[in-house]
TrEMBL record:
<dbReference type="GO" id="GO:0016491">
    <property type="term" value="F:oxidoreductase activity"/>
</dbReference>
<feature type="region of interest" description="Disordered">
    <location>
        <begin position="216"/>
        <end position="239"/>
    </location>
</feature>
<feature type="transmembrane region" description="Helical">
    <location>
        <begin position="108"/>
        <end position="129"/>
    </location>
</feature>
<dbReference type="InterPro" id="IPR036374">
    <property type="entry name" value="OxRdtase_Mopterin-bd_sf"/>
</dbReference>
<feature type="transmembrane region" description="Helical">
    <location>
        <begin position="150"/>
        <end position="175"/>
    </location>
</feature>
<feature type="transmembrane region" description="Helical">
    <location>
        <begin position="46"/>
        <end position="73"/>
    </location>
</feature>
<feature type="transmembrane region" description="Helical">
    <location>
        <begin position="181"/>
        <end position="199"/>
    </location>
</feature>
<protein>
    <submittedName>
        <fullName>Molybdopterin-dependent oxidoreductase</fullName>
    </submittedName>
</protein>
<keyword id="KW-0472">Membrane</keyword>
<dbReference type="Pfam" id="PF00174">
    <property type="entry name" value="Oxidored_molyb"/>
</dbReference>
<dbReference type="GO" id="GO:0022904">
    <property type="term" value="P:respiratory electron transport chain"/>
</dbReference>
<keyword id="KW-0812">Transmembrane</keyword>
<dbReference type="InterPro" id="IPR008335">
    <property type="entry name" value="Mopterin_OxRdtase_euk"/>
</dbReference>
<feature type="transmembrane region" description="Helical">
    <location>
        <begin position="245"/>
        <end position="263"/>
    </location>
</feature>
<dbReference type="InterPro" id="IPR016174">
    <property type="entry name" value="Di-haem_cyt_TM"/>
</dbReference>
<feature type="domain" description="Oxidoreductase molybdopterin-binding">
    <location>
        <begin position="307"/>
        <end position="437"/>
    </location>
</feature>
<keyword id="KW-1133">Transmembrane helix</keyword>
């Protein structure tokens, strides 16, 4: 019995077949040369699937922590960025104050994983790069859609990685708002990732269930069998490394980046955070921990934050004004709490000051729903912040006056700053001038 079916991996053309055949016949200059250049015998479904499985396990965590961090900023009070996200608005809730390290973990994971996965992303792109130059670019409408999802996936992860790394380095070389671009870029990438996984998951599972290649030494490294996706080189050259070598190099790069990054979130390893410009200590002594914005940058002078400074407390029509001496005369509370920054660094310090709920009681505020905190800082995205009722009434939520047993330094918010468990660092307002309690 005979059949006209082509061999398993011979090119097949779907409707409109005439178009795909015409494209195949009219190959652009350089395509064949590029195809011949990709000759590594270690490329193939197995290596690509291993790297893909690592990314499939880790990237959803990056996406979820990013969404949680947006929620932590308080979209209910119009202070999450970007503000107007339309139908992309996820379900929101009042960010909890417990555990106190919650935002430190979510933001630390988001940034650290994003950095650590860079070698894996690059290795995955290297394993599939010949596909980007395949001709014809598609042989069916379904493959066109697949290639479009791949384009969005590759472009999305490169855009998110590059802009995220630049943000961590405070290098705003791009001419657009980082928060807005990162938000919409994340949604584009997520949709492309879901589509790509839906298309490729069966083949990835098949490749991983097949014979492994990790233990094959260089001298016995050979190409995998020809595959329908064209990942295996058509004219493979001699092996210069094994698949185990590629995975070891990738894993070693990821571990190196982890070692140079994890100190941003672990105080004992602070000096090892060489990739974080403000993740390291900025000096010695009780106030020698990092700051994101100095008093000079915020325009807060010694004159404005000096002896003439007053804190205004408001609740409805009632106003109470206190100077720093008056605040120090009130019952003081001490708590060890973290400050966590959106760029990924965090630090835990021991703060002393007046509970926010005691200040609310002092001005007669009851049934607290929110507190609006204003700073001496003039302008800036974070010169004001709104706390929800649960954050105001937490027993460790403070208007801090001292840290680690000494007065706050000007860069750490002297004469007073807000410190609340699990609150994003930018909302732990420094140089506080006013608190308005809403009931």
């Amino acid at each position: 019995m005979t059949t006209d079916a082509p061999p398993p991996h011979e090119p097949r053309y779907a409707v409109p077949a005439r178009l795909w055949r015409a494209l195949d016949r009219h190959r652009p200059p350089g395509v064949d040369a590029v195809e011949r250049a990709w000759r590594s015998p270690v490329r193939g479904p197995w290596l690509t699937s291993v790297l893909g499985a690592v990314l499939l396990a880790a990237l959803p965590l990056v996406v979820v922590t990013g969404l949680l961090d947006w929620i932590a900023y308080g979209p209910r009070f119009d202070q999450a960025f970007p503000r107007d996200v339309g139908w992309l608005h996820p379900p929101v809730f009042d960010w909890p104050t417990r555990p106190a390290w919650l935002f430190r973990v979510t933001q630390g994971l988001h940034v650290t994983l994003g950095i650590v996965l860079v070698p894996v992303v690059l290795a995955k792109l290297w394993s599939v790069v010949p596909k980007l130059f395949a001709w014809p670019p598609a042989r069916s409408v379904a493959q066109v859609l697949e290639r479009l999802s791949l384009l969005l996936l590759v472009g999305g992860i490169l855009f998110q990685s590059v802009t995220g790394l630049l943000n961590v380095q405070y290098a705003y070389l791009f001419g657009f708002d980082f928060y807005t671009a990162h938000w919409y870029g994340a949604w584009i990438f997520t949709v492309a990732l879901v589509a790509h996984v839906a298309i490729k998951l069966p083949r990835m599972v098949t490749a991983l269930r097949g014979p492994g290649f990790a233990r094959t030494p260089v001298e016995r490294t050979a190409p995998e069998p020809s595959d329908p996706d064209g990942l295996v080189a058509r004219r493979p050259g001699p092996a210069t490394t094994s698949r185990r070598g590629v995975l070891a190099l990738t894993g070693g790069g990821a571990l190196l980046l982890a070692a140079l990054t994890v100190g941003q979130s672990v105080d004992a390893l602070r000096r090892t955070a060489l990739l974080l410009p403000r993740g390291r200590r900025v000096g010695d002594g009780p106030t020698g921990f990092p700051v994101n914005r100095t008093a000079a940058a915020a325009g807060v002078t010694a004159e404005r934050a000096g002896a003439g400074w007053r804190l205004s407390l408001r609740a409805g029509d009632r106003v109470v004004t206190l100077d720093r001496v008056g605040l120090l005369a009130l019952p003081q509370h001490t708590a060890t709490l973290p400050i966590a920054c959106v760029e990924g660094w965090s630090t835990s310090q021991t703060w002393t000051g007046v509970r926010l709920r005691d200040l609310a009681a002092l001005v007669g505020a009851t049934g607290l729903t929110a507190a609006r905190v204003g700073s001496l800082e003039r302008g800036g995205l974070f010169s004001r912040a709104t706390l929800h009722g649960g954050q105001v009434t937490d027993p460790d939520a403070l208007l801090a006056l001292r840290v680690n047993g000494v007065d706050l330094s000007p860069d750490h918010g002297f004469p007073a700053r807000v410190v609340v468990p699990a609150l994003p660092g930018v909302h732990c307002t420094k140089w506080v001038a006013e608190i308005v309690f809403d009931g």
